[in-house]
Design goal:
The protein is an alpha+beta fold. It has five helices and ten strands, in the order βαββααβββααββββ.
Amino acid sequence: MKRYYFTITYLPKNCDVSLLAGRCIGILHGFMSSREISNIGVCFPKWNEQTIGNQIAFVSTDKKQLTNLSQQSYFEMMAHDKLFYLSKILEVPINQSDVMFVRNQSIAKAFVGEKQRRLKRAKKRAEARGEVYTPEYKFEAKDIGHFHSIPVSSKGNGNNFILHIQKIEKAEPMHNHFNNYGFATNQEFQGMVPSLNTLF
């Protein structure tokens, strides 16, 4: 099965690559949600231990959808202002190894702010049932592994939140099913993308 991709390279030096990635992912999210599709995946070709890199790629078996995505006004405006370099739609070379970029929501649960939000929600639910809320705190040691965090704004409710992304090398048959942010998840979505790291 042929796959296609295009890349966006952030051109300003010393820019906040996570913030720009979050903006690009926000555009993808709106695009996929409005069309009710799940066949476009996100790849970070320059991902390493320190950074997600100054480049994001969008990958799909549907060349037409990628063309439409690449023509979104935000991408075109940023390219016109010479802040982004948009590549053409290219065919993925067959020698690429596959990886999964996984949105791991369990990482968020390890942060204090997220714990406080969850406690507030639990308290509200208990009070709605007419119960007294007595939180139990259990310490759980978790080995999370390496991840990068990307801030994203929700168009729907205007809230800002963080996507915690992990890269996993894969050597099994390709899946092309992503959540509507373009990522695999721990359970439902097992989409894979070519690593593309040997091309740049």
